[in-house]
Structures are given as C-alpha cells and as structure tokens.
Write a sequence for this structure.
C-alpha cells in the first residue's frame, strides 16, 4: 500500500472510531443493565418519575408484555425514552399498554401505499391533493379574497392564483357563497 493509501485508511479509521466507541459503550450499557437489573423498565420508571412529578407505581402485566415484545432497535436509550414517554402519558397508578407508544411493525408503514410505483409519482399525487385541498379551503375561508388568503397562507398572491387556476378553482363561486 502506498503512503497516500495508508494515510487515507488512517483518516477513515479516525473518523469511524468515535462511532465505534459509542456503539460499544451503548452495547455494554444495555448488556450491563440487563445483567444487573432484574427489571430495566422499572429501573427507568424510578429514575424518571420524580422529574415527571407523578406517583406511578409500576406497569400492568400487559404493559410489560408489550415492552417485552418490542425489538428496541435504539438499544437502551430507546427503552428509556419509551418508558419516560409512557410515564408522561400515564393517567393512573400503573402504566397501561395504551400509554406505551409502540405499535406493531406493520403500523409504521402508511396503509395503502403501492410500493410498486415510483416514489416521485406517489409524492406528486400527495402534493397535488394537498395543494388543491389547501387552496380550496383557504379561499373558502376568505370568501374568494385572493389577497387576504395569500397573506394568511404566507405566499405571494400570484402563486395562490396560479394554484387556483391549476386546479380549476372558480374564485367567483367563493364570493357568492356557492359550493366549490
């Protein structure tokens, strides 16, 4: 390997090193917590309940089961964040499954997305639907007054007019109170 290659390898190593150290630390921290603490969620509950100012005593068995089934890709910090969030959301003495913001893996994907279509095409459809609905609603709220609607929308009057024209929105209908 030539000197330039060695230098580049060294630079890459030093740039990667902090991330590797953090990864090792978090892995060790998670491992240590699991080995020394019989109930990590309860450990975090005790850690955060004074800060939150609630007298939550623990978790229902169903809530612990919900936590146990989650993979926690963010490691120990994610577990701690989920417990803290559940503590904030809790209404009674115990954290219930509804208080824990963990859904099934399939719930993270928006329903009805056709993954066989290109991202750009799907995005265009969503943006156009939003633009049309927003333009109709803002004009309806201002009875077709383009200047007032544009002011509230924080956009130039010409741009709002272009959107109305693009989606065949008749401003006169809003002024007379007819449905669009």
């Amino acid at each position: 390997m030539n000197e330039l290659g060695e230098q580049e390898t060294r630079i890459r190593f030093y740039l990667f090193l902090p991330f590797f150290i953090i990864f090792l630390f978090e892995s060790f921290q998670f491992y240590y917590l699991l080995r020394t603490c019989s109930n990590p969620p309860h450990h975090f509950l005790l850690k955060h309940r004074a800060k939150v100012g609630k007298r939550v005593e623990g978790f229902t068995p169903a809530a612990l089961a919900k936590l146990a089934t989650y993979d926690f890709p963010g490691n120990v910090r994610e577990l701690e964040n989920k417990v803290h969030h559940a503590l904030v959301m809790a209404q009674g003495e115990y954290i219930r499954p509804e208080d824990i913001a963990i859904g099934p893996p399939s719930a993270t994907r928006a329903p009805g997305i056709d993954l066989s279509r290109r991202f750009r095409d799907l995005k265009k459809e969503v943006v156009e639907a939003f633009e049309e609905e927003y333009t109709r609603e803002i004009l309806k709220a201002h009875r077709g007054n383009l200047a007032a609607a544009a002011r509230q929308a924080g956009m130039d009057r010409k741009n709002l007019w272009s959107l109305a024209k693009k989606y065949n929105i008749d401003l006169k209908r809003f002024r007379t109170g007819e449905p669009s």
Summary: Residues 103 and 145 are 44 Å apart (CA to CA). Residues 105-109 have pLDDT under 50 and may be disordered. The first strand starts at residue 58 and ends at 59.
